[in-house]
Target: XRE family transcriptional regulator
Amino acid sequence: MEWCLEHARVRHNRSVDNIADLMGMASKWVIYKWLENGRLPAILIRPFEQACGIDYVTRFIGHSGQKLLIDIPTGHRASSSDINALQASFTDAVGLLLRYYDGQIEAEDTLGALFTAMEQLAWHQGTVQRRQQPEFDFGAGVGGEM
Model:
C-alpha cells in the first residue's frame, strides 16, 4: 500500500487527501489507519489502486499465493518495444538467477525478476493465441460503416 501511495505521489502528484477524495472517502485518516494495521478492505482494493494509478496490492496478493498475473491479452500485434522489453526482462532474470546461485543476492530479488519475465512471456503467449481466433468487430456500424 505504501508503494501505491508513493507511486501516486511521484507519478501523478496525488496526496493522500487526493486519493481519499478519488475513492469517495470522507477522511484521509481511514487510509492512514489501513497503512498502520495493513488491513485494506478487499472491496476497496480496486478503487484504491485506481486512485493511485498502479496495482501493487493486487500483484502482492497474487505473488504471495505463488500465482502469475498478466494483463488480458488483446490479440493486437506487439511492437518492437514490447519485444525489447521482453528480452530485457529475460536478461535481467537470468543475470539475477546467476547471481543468486553464486550467493550474491537474496531470493526475493530473483523471484521478482523471474515473475516479471514469466508474466511478460505469458502475455505474449495469450496474444499469439488470441490473434489466431477470429473475433466480431463490434465497433463497426450497420453495414460495416462507422
Observations:
- Residues 80-131 form one domain.
